[in-house]
Specification:
- The structure is a single chain.
- The strands form two sheets. A seven-stranded mixed sheet has the order 6-7-8-9-4-3-10.
- The chain is mainly beta.
- 5% of the residues lie in helices and 37% in strands.
- A hairpin with a 6-residue loop joins strand 7 and strand 8.
Length: 138
């Protein structure tokens, strides 16, 4: 396997992973669930091919929840510190979404796609020219 493009892990260090492909897309999600999960103004998801993820240490746990678009989201997190690491729409096996805050290096949001903008917090400014959708893109 090639050298990793990026690496990341949980807050306590129990789980480490490597990514062996560049992002397919970067999403800034303004939905209520992502705001709650991140305890912030939005969530950052870095979409990669599922095969690009290599778990190097630890065993994440799975928690699932229904989404506003009618799907089920499978979410992996550290059982020790609770850090969300990645999620994947159930049945969508080609890609998964790495949580941006779990990556070792900062995510460049200059080309990010903003989704669920209809529920963004007042005062959050979306850059001029950024691709955006009031809900999830179809």
């Amino acid at each position: 396997m090639t050298d990793p493009v990026a690496q990341g892990g949980c807050q306590c260090g129990a789980i480490r992973y490597a990514l062996h492909a560049r992002p397919l897309a970067i999403f800034v999600c303004h939905c209520t669930e992502c705001r709650r999960q991140s305890a912030s103004a939005f969530g950052i998801s870095v979409q990669v091919p599922q095969a690009a993820l290599l778990l190097k240490r630890g065993e994440p746990r799975l928690w699932s929840r229904p989404t506003a678009s009618g799907h089920t989201l499978d979410c992996w997190f550290c059982p020790h510190c609770g850090t969300r690491l990645w999620h994947q729409r159930r049945g969508a096996t080609a890609t998964l979404n790495i949580k941006g805050g779990s990556l070792d290096e900062a995510v460049d949001l200059s080309e990010a796609i903003h989704i669920w903008t209809r529920s963004k917090l007042p005062g959050v400014v979306i850059p001029d020219g950024a691709r955006q959708f009031p809900q999830e893109p179809g």
